[in-house]
Amino acid sequence: MQVKAREVYVPPVLQDLRAGTAELHIALEKRLPFFSDTLDINAFKRLMQAYYGFYQPLEQALLDSGVIPDDFDLTPRLKAATLYADLQTLGAASTMLSLCRELPLINASAASLGVLYVLEGATLGGQILRREIAARLNLDADNGAAFLDIYGAATGRRWRDFIEYLGSRPLDAAERAAVVAAAQTTFSCFERWLESQEVLA
Ligand code: HEM
After folding, report:
1. pLDDT for position 9
2. Residue nearest to ligand 1 atom 10, measured at CA
3. Where is the signal peptide (predicted)?
4. Number of domain units in the chain
5. Is residue 11 packed enough to be buried (19+ CB in 10 Å), middle (13-18) or exposed (0-12)?
6. What is the pLDDT of residue 2?
7. 125 C-alpha to ligand 1 centroid (Å)
8. In a domain? residue 134
9. pLDDT in tens, 43-89
10. What are residue 72's phi and psi, to 5 degrees?
């Protein structure tokens, strides 16, 4: 009997996103200090403060944008509150934390989807980072690193749900280009922000 390999459908917008952001992902991943020998608890706190300084205003911008498609449920995908709770657990929370002001422009639903692609995709790498931080700093979801495991065992399913949603949206070529451009800007804004906070290698 012939067994056909399971075919996973990759929608055109996802092909474009992957082609358009792969290099940006590799470049950022190389500079993030999660695997650095010098990453101690203080460096981790500073890194998570810098993450919060990006996620908080970016999620607020998504909420304020008015262009999130009506059938997309953003609330269960918001992560800044979990990041803040981690900072509180770590004794690193403060109302004085710097917040990024140079954010991607979210002026159409296509742009919102590009931003969301980056924020949702980051939960996948989060699973690798979670293991590293548990091994290295003894931190997990209960004592200050819940953000890295934000969707827990549902990580894969939630990513597939997002991709399915993305693939189900009717997007013309111009809109697909706008999705990719927003994703690229999200990566570059994040990298510039982290650099300005002096947490990158
Ligand atoms: C050292 C840090 C990071 C590592 C080691 C890492 C690693 C990974 C890995 C292994 C995947 C593929 C997972 C899979 O297919 O199951 C992935 C996907 C992804 N990551 Fe990262 N990542 C890191 C940081 C980030 C950051 C900071 C962002 C954005 C803010 C990001 C955005 C994405 C996106 C959008 C995808 C989805 C790619 C796709 O399948 O279309 N990653 N990452």
Report:
1. 81
2. 125
3. none
4. 1
5. middle
6. 45
7. 4
8. yes
9. 999 999 999 999 999 999 999 999 999 999 999 999 999 999 999 99
10. -100, 125
